[in-house]
């Protein structure tokens, strides 16, 4: 009996290939195409005529299509229709029960719906950073983003527009300190595949703000720019990989370097990293010491006691920088980050900016959060990773935090008065 039914279905399949031009009519008499379910459109009348000629009766259900036919049917049909998967009876639900054309149709529909549901659930279970970030219809994608906020505000500032950033976007970081990009990757872009391209800049221009939305250009300087590769800098970086930058990164680099007032120059990743560390070493001395002393940068000059403190701090900083794995394959690292060279650079900058107040002094006076965690705190953090105990930088970091908290509490205790006391 089963072989007879298979023979009928094979005959029906052959006729389907001959008459597959019009939609099939369902049992309710309404014309309905099945191409969206099976990919094949058939005509019910031609199928029923073929079955009637064999059995003298018309089945009460729609005939199965080519995909729904039994695998023991003519193998040449599968060769003529590439890409069609025909499952065995054992793979269909309820294979132990007698199969009919109706149960086979329902089984195929159930299997197709299950595959769609699994794909949708898999996509929904992915976290937001793992999915391709597509902005809303009312918002545009951000191709170029320049971040110049204080280091502690970096994640919060980018988080507000993170959904408008894609792997084709570029972010330029113009900030003091180091370690902000690691936080951005951890909290906002953990998936490297959908991470924007990062460009870091080292600014030596003299700038300060005298009121909200106003910046004063106090001194001429330069901007060193470098595109960070998606692989760690310590690994081998091929020139071809750097040339395969996103169009937005190439455009932003070209625009910055061609704008004369910026005096911007592009550097390879290892060179820009060394320039970042040079500036970090200077900031680790001038910023926290002037913040604790509440003085100008020039107060650190020509003072034997301050000079001893500077040398102790730079000794720790020099050891940490020389031990960084990112610089393991870079030549002349020991000479560049020698304690004596760093000391000369610190006092040279302090002499050049003798009449200026560091940004950390201004932050403490205004009651704002300082960047100490991304300056001396970065040295302490990287030292702990390599087993180096930076006790001097650790003490200085907490002294700045303590002064910052104390100043904030003093300002909070002040009462606003309408007039002068009598």
Automatic annotation (TrEMBL):
Coiled coil: none annotated. One of its GO terms (molecular function) is 2-dehydropantoate 2-reductase activity. Residues 110-229 form the Ketopantoate reductase N-terminal domain. Pfam families: ApbA, ApbA_C. InterPro entries: 6-PGluconate_DH-like_C_sf, 6PGD_dom2, ApbA, Ketopantoate_reductase, KPA_reductase, KPR_N, NAD(P)-bd_dom_sf. Residues 1-81 are annotated as: Disordered. Keywords: NADP, Oxidoreductase. GO terms for biological process: pantothenate biosynthetic process. It comes from the Eukaryota. Residues 271-403 form the Ketopantoate reductase C-terminal domain. It is an enzyme of class 1 (oxidoreductase). One of its GO terms (cellular component) is mitochondrion. Residues 1-18 have a biased composition (Basic and acidic residues). Its EC number is 1.1.1.169. Belongs to the ketopantoate reductase family. This is 2-dehydropantoate 2-reductase.
């Amino acid at each position: 009996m089963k072989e007879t039914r298979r023979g009928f279905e094979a005959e029906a399949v052959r006729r389907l290939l001959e008459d597959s031009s019009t939609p099939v009519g369902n049992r309710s008499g309404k014309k309905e195409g099945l191409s969206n379910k099976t990919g094949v459109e058939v005509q019910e009348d031609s199928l029923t005529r073929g079955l009637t000629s064999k059995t003298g009766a018309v089945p009460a259900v729609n005939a199965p299509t080519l995909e729904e036919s039994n695998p023991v049917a003519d193998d040449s049909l599968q060769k003529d229709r590439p890409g069609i998967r025909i499952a065995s009876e054992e793979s269909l639900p309820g294979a132990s029960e007698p199969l009919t054309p109706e149960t086979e149709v329902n089984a195929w529909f159930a299997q197709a719906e299950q595959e769609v549901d699994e794909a949708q659930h898999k996509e929904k279970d992915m976290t937001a950073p793992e999915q391709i970030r597509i902005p809303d219809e009312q918002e545009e994608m951000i191709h170029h983003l320049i971040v110049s906020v204080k280091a502690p505000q970096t994640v919060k500032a980018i988080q507000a527009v993170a959904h408008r950033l894609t792997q084709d976007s570029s972010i330029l970081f113009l900030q003091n300190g180091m370690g902000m990009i690691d936080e951005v990757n951890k909290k906002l872009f953990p998936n490297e595949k959908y991470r924007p391209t990062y460009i870091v800049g080292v600014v030596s221009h003299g700038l300060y703000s005298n009121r909200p939305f106003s910046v004063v250009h106090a001194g001429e300087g330069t901007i060193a720019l470098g595109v960070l590769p998606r692989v760690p800098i310590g690994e081998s970086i091929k020139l071809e990989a750097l040339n395969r930058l996103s169009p937005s990164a190439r455009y932003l680099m070209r625009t910055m370097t061609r704008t004369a007032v910026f005096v911007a120059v592009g550097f390879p990743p290892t060179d820009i990293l060394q320039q970042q560390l040079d500036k970090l070493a200077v900031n680790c001395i001038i910023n926290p010491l002037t913040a604790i002393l509440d003085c100008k940068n020039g107060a650190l000059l020509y003072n034997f006691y301050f000079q001893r403190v500077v040398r102790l701090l730079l000794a720790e900083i020099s050891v940490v920088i020389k031990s960084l794995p990112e610089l393991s394959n870079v030549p002349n690292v020991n000479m560049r980050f020698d304690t004596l060279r760093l000391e000369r650079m610190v006092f040279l900058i302090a002499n050049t900016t003798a009449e200026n107040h560091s940004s950390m002094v201004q932050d403490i006076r205004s009651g704002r959060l300082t960047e100490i965690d991304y300056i001396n705190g970065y040295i302490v953090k990287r030292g702990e990773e390599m087993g180096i105990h930076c006790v001097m930088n650790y003490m200085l970091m907490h002294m700045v935090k303590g002064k910052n908290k104390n100043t904030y509490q003093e300002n909070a205790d002040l009462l606003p008065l309408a007039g002068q006391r009598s």
